[in-house]
Design a protein that fits this description.
mainly alpha; two-stranded antiparallel ribbon; 6 helices; 4 strands
Amino acid sequence: MNFWRRLRNKILDLRDPFFRRWKLIFAFTCSIAISVDLLFFYIPEINEKEKCLHFDEAFQITACVLRSIFDLIYVLRIIIQLHTGFIDTSSRAYGRGELIADSEAARKRYLSGYFVIDNVSIIPLPQVSFLFRVAHFQLEILNC
């Protein structure tokens, strides 16, 4: 119980080398995740012999698993963001800026800002929508 209490009140410094490395890793994984989203367009295939549309199941599973892994990395980003301090806007005018290390103030600022956008972005829309489209398509069209 004491471990979780300490973790809950821990605040990361924006100027810390760990945080800088994390931002680079996260930017790289976001660019790869955008590329993975494009893979969902390559799952439907046309069977030239039978002139029908079918879905590559192995490719579908690969795309869904990769997208889910990147969604988990984004969840980790949300958790780190909840524990990250921020630079006070009033102290930026005097130069370097003062880090606000109050855990409640940092959480309140993040929850009132980008938290909703971050949560909407991890909704597994490509995975779920494609699975529903595949199920609906297979019910309507005869299998080839």
